[in-house]
Amino acid sequence: MADVPVAGQSVVLWLRMRRFFCDNETCPLKTFAEQVDGVTSAHARRSPRLRGMLESIGLAVAARAGARLAARLGLITGRDTLLRLVRAIPDPPIGTVTVLGVDDFAVKRRHTYGTILLDMATHRPVDLLADRTAESLAAWLRAHPGVTIVCRDRAGAYAEGARLGAPGAQQVADRWHLWHGLAGYVEKTIRQHHRDLRDPDHDIPRPDPDRVAPLDVEQVTIAADIDRVETQAVVVRIREHYQAVQQLLAEGESISGISRSLRLDRKTVRRFARATTIEELLIKQRDGRPGPLERFKPYLHERWNQGCTTATVLLAEIREQGYTGSYPALTCYLRPFRTVGAAPPATPAPPKVRDVTRWMLQHPDDLDDHDRDRLNEILARSSALERLSFHVASFAEMMTGRHGERLDDWTAAVEADDFPELHSFTAGLKRDHAAVVNGLTMEHNSGAVEGSVSRLKSIKRSMYGRAKFDLLRKKILCRF
Questions:
Q1: Mind listing the pLDDT tens digit for each residue in 232-247?
Q2: All domains of the chain, ordered by start, with CATH?
Q3: pTM
C-alpha cells in the first residue's frame, strides 16, 4: 500500500505481490519479496520514479531550495536527503574521448582551483579534477587512453600533464587565450608610450592677454596633479617595495627569499626585480582610471575663468550634471587655481590607455567614426604606436585566417622592433611553439570549455558557496 498525491488528491495504491521462502537451512536469506518493475525496489523506502524526481531537483537547485521546492510539489524530503541522493548518483560512462578540452576553475577564488575536462565532440563535461596540477591531468590521461588532441590554455601545468599522460596527442593552444595574452602586452606597450596619446597642440598653452599668466597656471596645475598622484598610498608603497627589492637583489638574495622577507607574492617580487626604473611600475597609477571629477574639468575651467570661484556654487552646478564625487575632492582640485588666480584653458583630455588598446584590438570596421578618427590621429603622430598597430593587425589576420605557418615570420618581425613588452609575449610563444602553431592552424578551440566553466560557476553560486567538491562534481557531470 502506498499513499501518493495525484492532481492534488491523496491516492492510495494497493499492490498485490508474492513472497517466497527458502527452505535451505544453509541459505542466509530466508524470504524473498517479488518486485514490480518501475514501482518498487528492494530495500528502498521510495519508488524509482520518486527517487528520480528528487535527484532531478537536487541536481537543479541547492539543497535547502530543493527541499522547499519538493515540499510545494508534494514530495516531502529534507536537504540532507537531497544531498545524499545526489552523491549516490553513479557517474555517467566516459567512453573514449578523442578531443579533450582542459581548463581550470575556482572552487574558492584565490585559494582552491580544480580542473574541468570536456569531450569536445559532444561538448559535455566528462570529469572534474580536484586540483590543476600536471600530475593529476597526466594520471587521468593514462587511465583514459585514446585522446589524440588536447585543447588547453597557456598554462604550463596542463602542457606538462598532456605531454606526460598522452605523449602522442597534439596540443592546441586556444586562440582566445592567445589574443587575450597579446592584449595585455599591447596595453603595457601603449602605457610605455602614453605621452604620444596627448595632442601636442594642447600641451603648449597659447598666450592670451585677457588671462593672467596662462603658462604659470598650466605649470601649477600640472604640478598639483603630479603631487596628488605621488602622495597616494599605493604609489608610496610601490616606491618602498621597489627600493627594498632592488636592495635585497644587490645583496644576492633570491626571488623566493625576498618574497618571504617582504611578505610579497613571488610574481610581484619578480615584476619589481625586472623593472629597470621605478617609472615602469608607476605608469598605470599615473594614468589611472578617470575619477568622478574628470569629465567636469573643462566646465570648471570655463566657469572659473568667467569669474565663478565659489566651490559650493560650482559643486551645485556639476551635481546637477551628474557629479557624484565629494566636496573635498572639488576643493582640492580648485586649490591651484586660487594660488595663481586663473584656470588653465579647457582642453580635451587625452584618451585613456585602455580605450586606445580597445581601438587597436578591435576590427576597424567595427569602430565608430569618432573612435576610428582618434586612433588614426594618434597613429599619425606616433611611429611607435603605428608599428604596434601593424603587428596587432598582422596577428589578428594570422589568427582569424588560421595561418599558423606565418607565426615564425611574425615573431621575427616583432623581435626586430623596439617593443620589450611584446618580446616577452613572443618568448612565451616560442616556449609553447607547437601548441601555438596548432591553435593558429587547426579548427579546435576552447570555447565550449569556457561555456562549461561559466555554467559551473552558476551551479556553485546556487549552492551558496558551501558545496563540497564531490557534490559539485556530481552536479556538473549529471546535470548537463
A1: 667 778 888 888 998 8
A2: 2-88 (no CATH), 99-174+445-479 (3.30.420.10), 176-192+351-439 (no CATH)
A3: 0.69
